[in-house]
Amino acid sequence: MHRMTRHHVWTLLLAIATLTALATPAAAAAPKIPLPDIEIVPPAEKGKQAPFCSTTTGPHQKALERYLKLTPDGKQSPADCAAIQRFQDTYDIWPDTGYAGPVTWMAAKLAYAQEHPNDKNRCHPAPRVICIDLTRQILWLQQDTKTVYGPIPIRTGTDAYATRAGTHKVYLRNVDHWSTIYDAPMPYAQFFDGGQAVHGSYGSLFSPSGSHGCVNLHYEEAKALWAKTKKGDTVHVFGRKPAE
């Protein structure tokens, strides 16, 4: 019998570790939520260093309580904060203070929408259609009934400049458009109804909370959507933007 050398021992241990890793199922990762935005901090808590547990009731308190299966009383509590904080940590939302703000609520909506983008069949099938859900403030791209891109977060018009619902066609595309009305960039602009277009935004989608009627996307997502669409594609806008 051959004597096992130190080299043989290390080789055997490495083989065992590799086989164990292959045989052990990886922990289920949270679905990717494309949110580069930073969660807002209530004025009374500005200057505090995260992590800490927010005592302030957020604008989406009751909605997040329902989503996380907490008591939906619309009031922040230590239990609410801890649950919201865990959700924020799962989706890398910062600062993770347990505050029920717009970025956290959007992440919850996206987490659900990734499994059920067209759950009420509001977006009409077409060979290729950009689906814009005003109610949930999300967009996805559909081919017939199959989702091929998204859903992703969006920002649509304010009450004074509402994004118009209806079925349209992309009639003009401009990769480097500049708005002469608002003196602002509109990268990867795809116009579908008069001056209203889907286009990229360099800033946050949550501040300010509404556009002048266009559908704003994060820059990289507008670029990705551009590559998957073309002039003449259908754009279906439906629902109603929630009151601010």
Automatic annotation (TrEMBL):
Q: Which GO biological process entries does UniProt record here?
A: cell wall organization; peptidoglycan-protein cross-linking; regulation of cell shape
Which stretches make up the L,D-TPase catalytic domain? 128-238
InterPro entries on file: LD-transpeptidase (IPR050979), LD_TPept_cat_dom (IPR005490), PGBD-like_sf (IPR036365), Transpep_catalytic_dom (IPR038063)
> Which GO cellular component terms are attached?
extracellular region
Q: Where is the active site?
A: 199, 214
Q: A single GO molecular function, which one?
A: peptidoglycan L,D-transpeptidase activity
Protein name stated in the entry: L,D-TPase catalytic domain-containing protein
Question: What organism does the record attribute this protein to?
Answer: Streptomyces smaragdinus
